[in-house]
Task: structure prediction
Amino acid sequence: MKDPNVYIMLMSSLPSPEALFLAKRPPLSRLKLDRRLRVLAPEHARALRLTEKVVHWGDIPLAATDAELVARAKMAAREIENETVRLLIRDRLEIRTCMAALRRRLRGEPAPASGTDWGFGRWTRHIARNWTETSFRLDAVFPWLREADKLLKDGESLPLQRLILQQAWKSAKRRKGAHQYDFEAVVVYVLMWNIVDRWGRYDGEKAVERFDRLAEAALGDHAKLFGEGRA
Result:
């Protein structure tokens, strides 16, 4: 375990993320961020790598099945001992599960059969039971779902991407809590960096075209939990 002062110095050295969607690029490059992250304790560095592999869309194999992706997420959740980090993963993948369900339903697919590994988190059975409800009766938990459903039906790719990234940002920020200068704060910072970086890659009509091409390449004829929503 590293001296906690190391994490205090690390977090103090990192620039604050700019306001989401106002930033044209992250406040520092990934190369510079990775250099600063070298001070992480080995077990923390591994936990961060596992977290990013699960939640970062760029690390997800296009050929992977839903069952493989869910198994990968469950494995990471088992191997990571830090409760806050496990919750960060769960929060992020529950957003993706909701988006996968919306897309499946829009294509006219029936509710996922019981026992199938199609999503991750607490709400997979609830969603399947409430498949025909606009928000799957999850308004109290995910109040943004109705808006996401409308944007999806209207083909508003860029506003939908913005909405999803906003929810990912909010979920990470909620978990930060009292964590300011510890490992949990580092994980939240890296996840927020990834969100700002993701948004900075989109620009106007080119962004919409790029988003649609990625979606088509990633999804093919099947919904994929980790290929949809890109939270």
In short: DSSP finds ten helices and no strands in the chain. Residues 217-223 have pLDDT under 50 and may be disordered.
